[in-house]
């Protein structure tokens, strides 16, 4: 009996490599139809979570508010790229805790 060691990282790399090796869909392909018929369960879950359009503007308002907090009178010398990076890090600080 052969035993295999399972690693979340290795499994993720294999799934990603398999997905990237698939051919591209036609340009006129409906993304919703593609993900409904897809057999890639992990990618289906990820696409539902991250590729959907938000139903409200709350998230963008939160981000704008956070940017206003970061750029204050004391921090006026921050360059736009630094502010973008700070906002990105702040928004994604809990990404490893998201349940898919």
From TrEMBL:
Please name the InterPro entries in this protein's record. Answer: HATC_C_dom (IPR008906), RNaseH-like_sf (IPR012337)
Matching Pfam families, A to Z? Dimer_Tnp_hAT
The segment(s) forming the HAT C-terminal dimerisation domain are 23-92
Q: Which domain of life is it from?
A: Eukaryota
> What protein does this entry describe?
HAT C-terminal dimerisation domain-containing protein
Naturally occurring in which organism (per UniProt): Drosophila rhopaloa (Fruit fly)
Lineage of the species this protein comes from: Eukaryota, Metazoa, Ecdysozoa, Arthropoda, Hexapoda
């Amino acid at each position: 009996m052969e035993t295999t060691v399972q690693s979340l990282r290795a499994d993720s790399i294999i799934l990603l490599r398999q997905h990237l090796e698939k051919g591209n869909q036609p340009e006129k392909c409906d993304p919703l139809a593609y993900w409904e018929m897809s057999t890639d369960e992990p990618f289906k879950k990820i696409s539902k979570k991250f590729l959907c359009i938000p139903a409200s503007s709350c998230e963008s308002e939160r981000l704008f508010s956070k940017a206003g907090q970061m750029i204050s009178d004391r921090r006026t010398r921050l360059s736009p790229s630094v502010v973008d990076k700070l906002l990105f890090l702040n928004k994604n600080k809990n990404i490893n805790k998201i349940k898919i």
